[in-house]
Design goal:
Elements: E1 2-4, E2 26-28, E3 31-38, E4 41-48, E5 56-57, E6 69-73, E7 77-83, E8 90-94, E9 125-128, H1 152-155, H2 170-175, H3 177-182, E10 187-190, E11 194-196, E12 199-200, E13 207-208, E14 215-221, H4 228-240, E15 244-249, E16 258-261, E17 279-280, E18 286-287, E19 311-314, H5 346-349, H6 363-377, E20 383-386, H7 394-410, E21 417-420, H8 427-430, H9 432-435, E22 441-442, H10 445-455, H11 461-468, E23 484-485, H12 495-498, H13 505-521, E24 525-529, H14 555-558, H15 579-593, H16 596-599, E25 601-606, E26 613-619, E27 626-632, E28 638-643, E29 650-656, E30 667-669, E31 675-680, E32 684-690, E33 707-711, E34 714-718, E35 727-735, E36 742-748, E37 753-757, E38 766-775, E39 780-789, H17 797-800, E40 814-818, E41 844-845, E42 851-857, E43 860-868, E44 874-878, E45 888-891, E46 896-900, E47 905-911, E48 918-920, E49 927-928, E50 962-963, E51 968-973, E52 980-984, E53 986-988, E54 995-996, E55 1006-1010, E56 1015-1022, E57 1027-1034, E58 1041-1042
Parallel strand pairs: 9-10, 9-24, 10-15, 15-20, 20-21, 21-22, 23-24, 33-39
Antiparallel strand pairs: 1-4, 2-3, 3-7, 4-5, 4-6, 7-8, 11-14, 12-13, 16-19, 17-18, 25-26, 26-27, 27-32, 28-31, 29-30, 29-32, 34-37, 35-36, 35-38, 38-39, 40-43, 41-42, 42-47, 43-44, 43-46, 44-45, 47-48, 49-53, 50-51, 51-56, 52-55, 53-54, 56-57, 57-58
Helix pairs in contact: 6-7, 10-11, 10-13, 13-15
Region (Disordered): 137-157
Domain Glycosyl hydrolase family 13 catalytic: 127-591
Organism: Corynebacterium ulcerans
Length: 1057
């Protein structure tokens, strides 16, 4: 029975009636269902059994088990309510949605659009630290004329020290524009150029502001670098050569001119949180600052020096900030140094190593920074690189970027491009700055991290995982294709330094060149850090990565090695024939001549679990001609069979790392299934282009696979689009019953996916989704789906199959397909075996993100794969006959073998739709890590032996380990909770019958210390030694560092049987 507050609208005499025949559910196979016309509005409902309130159910597993289920409709709708009496799960289906109808309607064509691209986002950047590049005017080496006679503590100039000004300037860059252009550069990015406090610190701790991040005057070029007119001259000269100029800018901090007194007595060296000491207005009323972010001046509290936990005061009243409003100390956060606790308030409100942190929530700061940078836009700059964006509140960025963007448009500079710096390796954490503001992009730290790992010879599957995350950036005005990508920088160090342990000089050089090939051949805008083209390596990060291009006077640098082992020396470094410079020039020329390598879609073709070949195709949507790119990070030649996108085609080689010869074939051919054989020499990149202008062809199948699942946050809207062909899938959404579709964005290739921000939609809102896919044959197919905000009302495909409107139209999203499915009652495929459409072998959603299927099999030797979308166009197997799950998930891979020894043996299959890993319990047992992190990982509460918070549940698959070796298992948990101590142990078979803590004991737990939030925990379980270890890393990082080892507790707090 459906009991609800809309029952009287359905013909019942009262609402919440547990016995009304008008809402009585009827048996349909194993399910119960009822179609009810529900009016527009906000409603609540439950399922009630036996005509009374003794037994009732809400939505399972998501917080509504005991409560009413919310339902919000934008228009009247007929809904089918579906109840599973075994699991007690409730499903919801709008009857007007037919999931199997793929006909494109006239209104659908409004959704067909090109993936987002930006005309100004096709650059090859050259990132210059101005002071270290070239000295074009020795008269400005000491900055202001008044400081000319002083010592370095006053003017900051000491070319013999890494920590002081060396003399490079804007005129020096102008003199070397031909050199920069010769590298194929199309955009120059300058470090911050505004006037800085010349020197901060005293004695051995003193250093100069040569890097540009200690600003005192936001209106004037630093006199060490030149004048405002010099900057205008540079912009003009660069534009005349067809190059753009980008400013590196700062909005959230200034030089350290404010002293913090009082408070906790630390003089600002320690952070004081709002919880410890809230802000106070001039009347002493406490408030939280984030509550006023984005408000106008009339609403913002009035402040004075007593409003802060510390008392702010200027250390030297003679040192003035420009513009003058920056001299008001109440426009700064004044809470002490940041703790750099990702997710914590000090990241936004703390001083950056003592630099005075502006209160960017304050409307005066928003207005002031807008005026400052609008005036610099007027200089004719082409864009901004924005420093430390994750240390500023999002409300500031929403206002500031929109205003600057609008000003640029009004000045006729609609292509003005802004990209931010947020040090994080996770696309999920980086993408909001582009998704929710008018920033055009962010620096791709995730690429940098994985590219370095690749260049060192790491697992090429990590690149596949990296680019799978590109969908986080796909919106109507952002795309991963426009992300600036890089290999190293002035903070973390140079690529040459990061490769210092990767072989001898000759090998390091080849790995450096391979890294640059990856940089230029993959999606994004490549950024070359000045000096990398000359083979600079340096001795580390920060000032050890900021060598002079002109003849240096730093004696330590004279003896440094270049990446190839040669000595740095005493001369200048503007050699266009340097090995890395030649590689960069060749790659830039290749991009210029082949548009697909600049803005074309990138479609994954091959990756492996170790060093070896990484391959992908690039296709420009207008030309539709395929480029097949393959890079080998192993030291020896590797060969592989793979699928290209163009069948029955000839390809010609258009690029190879030519400095090392022509060992790869000069041409390739594909068969009628587009299969080809690729050979790539060690540490080499090759590019093949289809001959004779032949275009990609081929059809795809599949569509949306969302049928009532929960929507929350940035909700993933996924498809089963498959087939070995190029395609574009366009996404739209609307509230159920609305007429107009809202365009979400366009994704390319298989498994098309987009993320929909549903934070502004109320719980219970039913949302429709529509996709239109256009394939290589220009065939258009549509698909339809729906989700529900905040509550899981997913419909089992077996229930869908009994609905008249969708009969014979719905196919499972993923199935176990093998040589045993005939015995399950399957009828398709090969006489029932290898059936990609069989509902009896369907893998169904688990709340952890895994899909599962429990099948009963008789004894025998079996083989299987995973088929998706109801066909073999997209299936997943193994890389070889290896046993590791990390070798699984290979498109069109090999069959996986297993053995069943008992009669009517229940075998559970597991498949992850994002990583495509899979295994079953006949291959190895299920191993999980129950503990006190369960709630943070969204493990269900009060079910499967978990507690009321979702902790200590051995059946929760969110912590499931997969096999990584003969006797080792591992997992990476990205949703690390807040800092603190947590307990965990190893459990087998989703139960407590067999579990392990330290020393292999079942009566104790491991202690895991989380030092900061926003990290990833990577666990490794050795089944032989019965030892669990773990490491921590930034989100998306491929490099990890050891943390605390297991610690025994006195007693177990795990739930026992």
């Amino acid at each position: 029975m459906i009991a609800a507050d809309f029952q009287t609208k359905a013909g019942c005499t009262k609402d919440w009636d547990p016995a009304c025949s008008q809402t009585q559910m009827e048996k349909q196979g194993k399910f119960y269902s009822k179609k009810i016309k529900v009016p527009k509005g906000d409603w609540n409902f439950k399922v009630v059994l036996d005509g009374d309130w003794k037994t009732s159910y809400g939505a399972s597993g998501k917080g509504y088990e005991r409560d009413n289920v919310p339902l919000k409709l934008a228009a009247d709708a007929e809904l089918e309510f579906i109840f599973d009496p075994e699991s007690h799960h409730i499903g919801l289906r709008p009857t007007q949605i037919t999931t199997g109808d793929h006909e494109v309607k006239p209104e659908d064509r409004e959704l067909i659009k090109a993936p987002y691209r930006q005309n100004a986002a096709q650059n090859n950047f050259y990132f210059v630290l101005t002071d270290r590049f070239n000295n074009g005017d020795t008269q400005n080496d000491r900055g202001d004329a008044s400081a000319e006679q002083g010592d370095r503590a006053q003017h900051g100039f000491d070319p013999t020290s890494k920590a002081f000004y060396h003399g490079g300037d804007i005129k020096g860059i102008i003199q070397k524009l031909d050199y920069i252009q010769g590298l194929g550069t199309t955009a120059i990015w300058l470090t911050p150029s505004f006037k800085n406090k010349a020197v901060q610190g005293t004695g051995n701790d003193a250093s100069a502001g040569y890097h540009g991040y200690w600003i005192t005057d936001f209106t004037q070029i630093d006199p060490h670098l030149g004048t405002n007119q010099d900057m205008k001259d540079l912009i003009k000269a660069a534009h005349e050569k067809g190059m753009k100029v980008y400013f590196d800018i700062v909005t959230n901090h200034t030089a350290d001119l404010i002293q913090l007194a009082g408070g906790n007595g630390s003089n600002g060296s320690t952070y004081v949180s709002q919880q410890e000491q809230p802000y106070k207005d001039v009347n002493g009323k406490e408030f939280r600052l984030e509550d006023y972010a984005g408000k106008d001046a009339r609403e913002f509290p009035k402040l004075n020096k007593e409003s802060f936990p510390y008392t702010p005061q200027r250390t030297n009243p003679a040192e003035k900030m420009t513009p003058d409003w920056l001299n008001d100390v109440t426009l700064y956060h004044n809470r002490g140094n940041s703790m750099f606790d990702d997710g914590g308030e000090s990241v936004i409100m703390g001083d950056f190593f003592g630099l005075d942190d502006l209160m960017t929530e304050h409307p005066t700061v928003v207005d002031g920074m807008t005026k400052i940078y609008n005036e610099w836009v007027d200089y004719g700059l082409d864009g901004f690189r924005i420093d430390t964006v994750k240390h500023v509140d999002l409300a500031f960025w929403k206002q500031w970027t929109e205003r600057v963007h609008q000003h640029a448009v009004e000045k006729g500079m609609g292509d003005f491009f802004m990209f931010g710096e947020a040090y994080n390796f996770s696309p999920e954490a980086l993408s909001p700055f582009g998704r929710e503001t008018h920033m055009d992009a962010v620096l791709d730290f995730a690429f940098q991290n994985n590219a370095v790992d690749f260049a060192k010879g790491g697992d090429t599957n990590k690149l596949k995982s990296l680019f799978y995350g590109d969908d986080w950036y796909t919106t109507t005005r952002s795309d991963a294709a426009v992300l600036p990508t890089f290999l190293g920088n002035h903070d973390m160090g140079r690529i040459g330094s990061l490769l210092q342990k990767s072989g001898d000089g000759a090998e390091r050089l080849r790995r450096d060149q391979l890294a640059h090939a990856l940089l230029y051949l993959t999606r994004g805008q490549p950024v070359v850090y000045y000096g990398d083209e000359q083979g600079f390596a340096g001795s580390g990060s920060d000032k050890d990565a900021r060598q002079d291009m002109f003849a240096t006077k730093v004696t330590d640098v004279h003896n440094e090695q270049l990446v190839n082992g040669d000595q740095f020396g005493t001369g200048d470094h503007f050699n266009s024939e340097a090995p890395v410079a030649k590689t960069i020039t060749e790659l830039a020329k290749l991009r210029k001549e082949n548009k697909a390598l600049v803005e074309g879609a990138q479609i994954e073709r091959y990756a492996t679990s170790g060093a070896g070949i990484y391959a992908f195709s690039r296709v420009n949507r207008e030309e539709k001609q395929e480029y097949l790119v393959a890079l080998n990070n192993a030291t020896t030649t590797r060969e592989v069979d793979l699928n290209a996108l163009t069948p029955n085609a000839e390809f010609e080689r258009v690029y190879i790392s030519s400095i090392y010869g022509n060992e790869a074939p000069t041409s390739l051919t594909t068969d009628n299934e587009a299969k080809t054989h690729v050979t790539v020499p060690g540490l080499t990149a090759v590019v093949y282009k289809v001959k004779n202008g032949k275009q990609v062809t081929g059809s795809v199948s599949g569509g949306l696979n969302i049928v009532g699942q929960e929507l929350k946050g940035d909700a993933p809207i996924m498809t089963t689009v498959g087939g070995n062909a190029w395609s574009e899938t366009n996404f739209g959404w609307r509230k159920l019953g609305e007429k107009e579709w809202n365009y979400l964005g366009t994704d390319t290739g298989q498994d098309a996916r987009i993320f929909h921000n549903v934070r502004d939609l109320e719980p219970g809102t039913v949302v429709e989704y529509r996709t239109v896919t256009v394939d290589g044959d220009n065939k258009e197919t549509a698909s339809h789906g729906w989700g529900v905000v905040g509550v899981d009302l997913a419909v089992d495909s077996r229930a869908l199959s009994v609905s008249a409107t969708t009969a014979s139209a719905t196919v499972p999203a993923a199935v176990v397909a093998g040589n045993f499915t005939k015995d399950l009652g399957c009828t398709g495929g090969q006489e029932g075996n290898w059936d990609p459409t069989c509902a009896a072998a369907e893998l169904r959603d688990d709340s952890s993100g895994w899909k599962t299927a429990e099948l009963t099999l008789k004894p025998g030797e079996y083989e299987y794969k995973i088929a998706t979308g109801g066909s073999w166009d997209q299936s997943y197997g193994a890389l070889s006959e290896g046993t590791r799950e990390s070798d699984r998930g290979i498109p069109d891979g090999k069959n996986v073998k297993f053995q069943v020894t008992q009669d009517k043996q229940k075998v559970t299959f597991f498949y992850h739709p994002e990583t495509h890993e899979f295994f079953n319990t006949a291959e190895h047992r299920v191993i999980t890590l129950p503990g006190t992190m369960g709630g943070a990982l969204e493990c269900p509460a009060n079910v499967e032996k978990s507690d009321e918070h979702g902790n200590w549940g051995p059946a929760c698959l969110a912590t499931m380990l997969t096999r990584t070796g003969a006797h080792t298992y591992g997992t990476r948990l990205p949703k690390v909770p807040t800092p603190g101590n947590y307990q965990v142990k190893v459990a087998y078979d989703r139960d407590w019958q067999e579990s392990y803590g330290p020393d292999g004991r079942s009566d104790s737990n491991y202690l895991v210390t989380v030092a900061e939030s926003g990290k990833v925990l990577s666990y490794k379980w050795d089944e032989q030694t019965k030892k669990l270890t773990w490491t921590t890393s930034d989100q998306g990082a491929s490099l990890v560092e050891d943390v605390a080892m297991p610690t025994e507790l006195e007693e177990s707090v795990a739930l026992e049987n």
